[in-house]
């Protein structure tokens, strides 16, 4: 399935987007918001996710959801990736990761991950990303990303996430704007 420029919201206790049974999932420039069961659940090894915003998904507390933002359940194949994601304000049951859960080894590239602890768990690693509370991987920073506001997740002037996704070859951002030179972390390129 291919989704470009889509918005996903779940009803009742559902997950925003679920891929299972070897489904091939391709998601670009899309948003998952207010999904009580969590944002995106990947129970397939075949996925390419770029320039995605996941916000206010998952539910907290003792009987809340088992993840907030992204849940990687199947080992990704060599052509799968999660790049330039902005995951903010998601929640999960007590002790569960609020932003990213990995039951298998998975790497997220050029991400901005912000939320209450724990933000990530398991076999998740990050490359050239900003992860609140820190995470394993390379070139991971923990600084405030300096969003324009709590509801506008574009990067503001002076953000430490600007020009720090050094090895990204992504050509466009969430808004469809061209990414030139050194790319920015997250879904939005500062202009």
What would your notes on this structure say?
The chain has strands at residues 2-4, 7-8, 17-20, 24-33, 40-43, 46-55, 70-72, 81-83, 86-88, 100-109, 112-114, 120-131, 137-141. With 191 residues, it is mostly beta strands. A six-stranded parallel beta barrel has the order 6-8-10-12-11-9. The termini are far apart. The mean pLDDT is 92.
Give short descriptive properties of this protein.
single chain, mainly beta, 0% helix, globular, 191 residues, 13 strands, six-stranded parallel beta barrel, 38% strand
Portion in helices: under 10%
The averaged pLDDT comes out at 92
Q: Give the H and E element order.
A: EEEEEEEEEEEEE
Number of helical runs? 0
Rg from C-alpha positions? Answer: 15 Å
What coarse outline follows from CA principal-axis ratios? globular
Poorly predicted spans = none
Strand residue content: 35-45%
> How does the helix and strand content classify structurally?
mainly beta
How would you briefly describe this protein structure?
The chain is mainly beta.
Task: Lay out the secondary structure.
Blueprint: E1 2-4, E2 7-8, E3 17-20, E4 24-33, E5 40-43, E6 46-55, E7 70-72, E8 81-83, E9 86-88, E10 100-109, E11 112-114, E12 120-131, E13 137-141
Parallel strand pairs: 1-4, 2-4, 3-5, 4-6, 5-7, 6-8, 6-9, 7-10, 8-10, 9-11, 10-12, 11-12, 12-13
């Amino acid at each position: 399935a291919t989704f470009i420029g889509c918005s996903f919201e779940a009803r009742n206790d559902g997950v925003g987007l679920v891929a299972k049974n070897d489904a091939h999932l391709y998601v670009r420039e899309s948003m998952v918001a207010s999904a009580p069961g969590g944002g995106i659940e990947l129970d397939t090894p075949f996925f390419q996710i770029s320039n995605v915003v996941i916000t206010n998904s998952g539910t907290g507390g003792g009987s809340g959801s088992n993840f907030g933002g992204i849940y990687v359940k199947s080992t990704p194949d060599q052509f799968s990736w999660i790049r330039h994601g902005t995951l903010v304000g998601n929640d999960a049951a007590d002790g569960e990761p609020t932003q990213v859960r990995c039951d298998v080894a998975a790497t997220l590239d050029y991400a901005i991950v912000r939320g209450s602890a724990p933000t990530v768990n398991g076999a998740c690693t990050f490359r050239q990303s900003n992860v609140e509370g820190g995470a394993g991987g390379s070139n991971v920073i923990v600084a405030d990303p300096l969003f324009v506001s709590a509801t506008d997740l574009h990067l503001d002037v002076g953000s430490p996430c600007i020009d720090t996704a050094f090895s990204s070859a992504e050509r466009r951002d969430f808004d469809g704007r061209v990414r030139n030179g050194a790319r920015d972390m997250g879904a939005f390129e500062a202009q």
